[in-house]
């Protein structure tokens, strides 16, 4: 009886040694695997350091970058530019514009990269702006189908814009790869060409990182891309219409149109003892435009809704934009001219707005 515990202890001790030996082997295996992984990670880190010696801090390397063929290159938006407030504002303005244009199609864009890359939104937007129906499949899920749709859309866009001097800064591959800079370039060009009634932020530039592969090594450089310039330059690319023709080739007929418009607006403004002699300057602050809409629609516009004596550019733009809202409330289409152009004494823009009112209210008393 007394020897039993001794045998048990010896057996237990042997078992413990066996377990310790097993755990030791297991631990050694784990340590070796860990060290092997550390060596592998270190090797990969060294490889990346060699391949990307000039890569800016914070720039994300995509797998496709390391797979570039010799002498090939790839562009990506610099992370600091992505957070640029003016660039963010430009995206917001473009998104609001698209959603407004495609409201009847019940299309809601939340982000340009995710919502524009497959060609569906760009197709609908171009068809709405141009009045043309493109021969493409309505819904395409496959990458091939999406790129085919993009090809058709971009061919139509390029055919429209290239004769007007636009530099084509986009492609099927860049749009489908969700290249935000290419998408914004395209949308800005369309907005400017079709005189979108929006205010694009001026002088918006971004930094683009260009990754190139030379002799098996990735090299990077920064390139500045100017997305918008000034209002004056923007207006040079605007779609030409009847008023362009009048200004360029028939100044005598233009004077006849201006006299007709002056007669029309004074017919109504005279009710408030107001009179217009210069169309481009007297409507520039938006006050007469707001009052005229109230007279044409037979209602009083509360004075707290606009600035009766605007003191700066922003207040004048507010007045003109408010007048545009009143026009839409009256059933008119949103003016093609931008409020900023009217404030900046752009004669063509002012004539477009007033002529639109004239054609809709010329028989009003």
From TrEMBL:
Keywords: Actin-binding, Cell adhesion, Cytoplasm, Cytoskeleton, Repeat. One of its GO terms (biological process) is actin cytoskeleton organization. One of its GO terms (cellular component) is lamellipodium. Residues 88-195, 255-362 form the Calponin-homology (CH) domain. It is found in: Cytoplasm, Cytoskeleton; Cytoplasm, Myofibril, Sarcomere, Z line. It comes from the Eukaryota. One of its GO terms (molecular function) is actin binding. Residues 1-22 are annotated as: Disordered. Belongs to the parvin family. This is Parvin, beta. It comes from Oncorhynchus mykiss (Rainbow trout). The lineage of its organism: Eukaryota, Metazoa, Chordata, Craniata, Vertebrata. The gene is parvb.
